[in-house]
Amino acid sequence: MSTSGICYLVGAGPGDLGLVTLRARECVEMADVLVYDALSSPEILRWAKKGCEMVNVGKRAKDHKLSQDGINALIVERTQAGKKVVRLKGGDPMIFGRGGEEAAELAAAGVAFEIVPGISSTIGGPAYAGIPVTHRDHCSQLTIFTGHEDPTKGESSIDYAHLAKTPGTKVFVMGVARLREITGALIEGGADPATPFALVRWATTGSQKTITGTLADIAGIAEAANFGSPAVAVIGDVVKEREKINWFEKRPLFGKRIVVTRTREQAGELSRGLAGLGADVVELPTIRIGPPDDKREFAEMVTHAHEYDWLVFTSPNGVERFFDAFFATYEDARSLGNPRIAVIGEGTAKKVREYRFGVDLIPEKFVAEGLVEAFAKGDSIENLTMLWVRGAEARDVIHEGLTALGAIVDECVAYKTEPETEDPTGAAARIREEGADLITFTSASTVENFFKLGLPWPEGCAAGSIGPVTSEALKKHGVTPAFEAKPSDIPGLIAAVRKWAGA
């Protein structure tokens, strides 16, 4: 038996990233090899460590990038090689996920493995559609089966006549393509044609769609709506509860596909805020943050930061890189001395406070001009020394404005913005194929690098801007933003998106 390699069979949940277990995330973060299928939440891939081998086996009906035998061989071989392998499967690996087969292969090969259950779409999907699979007023029994087998074939292992007579709620997956045959077999077996029926597609995601009917007419309704897989079907009186407790599909941004172009590391706050309001969020990072060209000069300026009267930060990125470099040199926070700290806005202030430092100056307007104006309204800064921590592409407004007020300003370039070249979740292809309702931009650099991707602007799509500088960048590309956030920060942008959607 391998002494170092181990394979984790991990349930990725039904789609909503918030439904992934803490243990599942731990496994993904430590994986050397990540083998994932097409039903996994693509955002999970962001948790993988640098250098992790990612293998998309793409298991979906009639579209298998790798056969089941091939998957079995792959996870065994990588585990035997001493790797930490994560086999990421949509929903729960042991509920129609063939996790039992994969576990048996691992056991037969004599390698270590662990099973990490996930929330199955068979219960998570109905819950997000406002349908409880069990309910005291309707049933006390739940039957789950696969619709993958054709009921018109004699060798089917599912006894539809028995299922038809079974009381309680019935839930099945992988059966949309055979919906007419399945419903017909149940009715033929004695089920009441008037039994309520619901289908939930892309359950628990911003793309969720639910249709309802009866056992007799749901097939026709689904065909008219061109309702395809992946979907979960619910049969029983519990479907009636949807009228009262349908919560997920009533959120203010539900039905809106919104693109987030921030860096992969920074997208989280905006994505969570929009997803929490019901949006179908597509993360397409157009930029990434790289080290400055002159790393030595940056390190030296950070080392001498205690000599300045003021530290001026104009982005969370600058704050993070400054303090990471500072604490790489000094063990004691008191080594920073007593400079006062000015920031461009609340987002930057929040990042400073994460390092347990206070903020002395925040402008009313969260732009460079607003920060200069805030200094102008305060006490004289003539002959005071200032260290402006900035990105390589920053405008000269801060330096020119503070110098004009008499300050002695040194510029500390902490990072540079680079085009993002990786797209592990296939976001660009999704936008090209499915379009979008809104694309959000949080800086001029996200605008510039979005247009460098060469993606056609989606038909009927609006642009949302975080502030005036970003808006100007959009206008240079012939796009007038539908709105501009006030204040110019992430909470302001989320509020502006919600107002836009309501209008």
- Strand arrangement across the biggest beta sheet: 3-2-4-1-5
Q: If helices are DSSP runs of H or I spanning 4 or more residues, what is the number of helices?
A: 18
Find the CATH topology of the largest domain: Rossmann fold
Termini separation (Å)?
62 Å
Shape: elongated
Strand runs, count: 20
User: Structurally, how many domains make up the residues?
Assistant: 4
**Briefly, what CATH class of the largest domain?**
Alpha Beta
Largest sheet features:
5 strands, parallel
Beta-strand residue fraction? 15-25%
Descriptive account of the structure:
The chain is an alpha/beta fold. The protein contains 18 helices and 20 strands. The strands form 4 sheets. A 5-stranded parallel sheet has the order 3-2-4-1-5, sandwiched between helices. A 5-stranded mixed sheet has the order 6-7-10-8-9, with helices on both faces. Helix 11 runs parallel beside helix 12 and helix 16 runs parallel beside helix 17 (468-476). The radius of gyration is 27 Å and the shape is elongated. The mean pLDDT is 92.
Give a concise summary.
33% of the residues lie in helices and 20% in strands. The protein is built from 18 helices and 20 strands. It has a five-stranded parallel beta sheet with strand order 3-2-4-1-5, with helices on both faces.
